[in-house]
């Protein structure tokens, strides 16, 4: 009798586990996607090779901030702010996010581009870090 | 618009309720903030405090505003980078169930740099979540539309031409970047807030 009960409990657990796995597989729960979002502002950091980038990320699994990457060429710097979404439906509430980007070489007048919009960005001067500081 | 506790959403249509005197409100999405949360335009110009939210069909909140600041204009093409946008005058609101799959809808949010337009692909999307302020919300009759949206766009105006059609709510993230957005119909938004209509004259 006791052995039969154990078998039934194990069978129930197996059925539950398989069902949960199928549910998760069908829903795609926990799977995430990265997306680029617009950049709000760019400020010169502690020197000409450091940029402070601000953008609007989201909350929870709906746009959690991943940071900012820079692709550099001789004439331009392309900044891409990225966020992560869990697949599915989620609310579009924003939270301010900020990242410091260290360039391979000083900006030196190169054009700065927002990778998500292809828009040219002006680099603001931080009051605490004026040019040639 | 930005809350004093660090969240951002988009302000939508200005609506009114007939009475003595007639009262005016800015509409946005209920999941953006609870009753008594305080909001400001661009983080600096105080708008006021939320006095009512509806976390069911409508997903709408309202912020009372003085009659002197009422307007039928909504912001489109807003650039957080420039801190400005362009405006469009609203002259009507779409009637109950007057939307059909395939109809073009447009929206522009605080964090989406240009007016997005695309076809309505579903009119009865149901889903639920827990808001960042801890309230459980279950939504029905969401309208799914085929264009993209970003965090911070909730509460933004959905329109076509000069007609108010709804308030932005959610993003549907899918593989291969085929993302869509969900908004609530303006009829449900107004009814949920006990509003008479959107302000449609200057």
Secondary structure blueprint with pairings:
The complex is a heterodimer of chains A (133) and B (202).
Chain A: H1 2-27, E1 32-37, E2 39-44, E3 50-57, E4 62-72, E5 76-86, E6 88-91, E7 94-102, E8 111-114, E9 120-121, E10 123-124
Parallel strand pairs in A: 2-10, 5-8
Antiparallel strand pairs in A: 1-5, 2-3, 3-7, 4-5, 8-9
Chain B: E1 2-3, E2 7-8, E3 14-17, E4 23-28, E5 38-41, E6 45-49, E7 52-54, E8 60-65, E9 73-79, E10 84-89, E11 92-93, E12 104-107, E13 116-130, E14 136-145, E15 157-160, E16 163-173, E17 180-185, H1 186-192, E18 197-198
Parallel strand pairs in B: 11-16
Antiparallel strand pairs in B: 1-5, 3-4, 3-18, 4-8, 5-6, 7-8, 9-10, 12-13, 12-15, 13-14, 14-17, 15-16, 16-17
Give an overview of the whole structure:
Chain A is of the alpha+beta class and 133 residues long. Chain A contains 1 helix and 10 strands, in the order αββββββββββ. Chain A folds into 2 domains: 1-30; 32-124, no CATH class. Chain B is mostly beta strands and 202 residues long. Helices cover 3% and strands 49% of the residues of chain B. Chain B has one helix at residues 186-192, and strands at 2-3, 7-8, 14-17, 23-28, 38-41, 45-49, 52-54, 60-65, 73-79, 84-89, 92-93, 104-107, 116-130, 136-145, 157-160, 163-173, 180-185, 197-198. Chain B has a 6-stranded antiparallel beta barrel with strand order 12-13-14-17-16-15. Chain A binds chain B through residues 33, 35, 37-41, 56-60, 62-63, 83, 85-96, 114, 117, 119, 121, and chain B through 6-9, 29, 31-32, 80-81, 109-113, 125, 127, 129, 131-132, 149-154, 168-175, 177, 179, 181-182. β6 (88-91) of chain A pairs antiparallel with β16 of chain B.
């Amino acid at each position: 009798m006791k052995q039969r009960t154990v078998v039934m409990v194990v069978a129930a657990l197996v059925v539950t586990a398989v069902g949960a796995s199928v549910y998760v597989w069908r829903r795609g729960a926990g799977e995430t996607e990265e997306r680029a979002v617009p950049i709000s502002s760019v400020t010169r950091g502690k020197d000409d090779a450091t940029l402070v980038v601000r953008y609007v990320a989201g909350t929870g699994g709906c746009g959690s901030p991943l940071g900012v990457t820079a692709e550099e060429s001789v004439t331009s710097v392309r900044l891409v702010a990225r966020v992560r979404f869990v697949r599915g439906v989620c609310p579009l509430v924003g939270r301010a996010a900020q990242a410091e980007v260290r360039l391979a070489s000083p900006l030196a007048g190169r054009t700065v581009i927002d990778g998500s919009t292809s828009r040219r960005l002006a680099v603001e001067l931080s009051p605490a870090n004026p040019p040639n500081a | 618009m930005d809350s004093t506790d660090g969240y951002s959403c988009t302000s939508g249509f200005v609506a009114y309720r007939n009475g003595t005197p007639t009262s005016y409100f800015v509409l946005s999405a209920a999941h953006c903030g609870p009753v008594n949360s305080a909001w400001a335009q661009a983080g600096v110009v105080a708008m006021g405090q939320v006095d009512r939210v509806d976390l069911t069909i409508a997903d709408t909140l309202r912020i009372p505003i003085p009659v002197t600041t009422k307007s039928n204009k909504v912001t489109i093409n807003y650039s957080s980078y420039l801190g400005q946008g362009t405006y469009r005058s609203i002259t009507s609101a779409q009637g109950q169930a007057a939307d059909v799959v395939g109809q073009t809808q447009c929206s522009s949010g605080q964090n989406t740099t240009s007016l997005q337009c695309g076809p309505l692909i579903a009119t009865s999307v149901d889903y639920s979540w827990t808001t960042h302020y801890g309230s459980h919300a279950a939504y029905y009759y969401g309208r799914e539309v085929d264009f993209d949206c970003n965090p911070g766009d909730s509460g933004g105006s959905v329109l076509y031409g000069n007609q108010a059609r709804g308030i932005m709510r959610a993003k549907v993230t899918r593989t291969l970047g085929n993302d869509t957005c969900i908004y609530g119909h303006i009829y449900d938004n107004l009814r949920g807030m006990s509003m008479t209509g959107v302000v449609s004259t200057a």
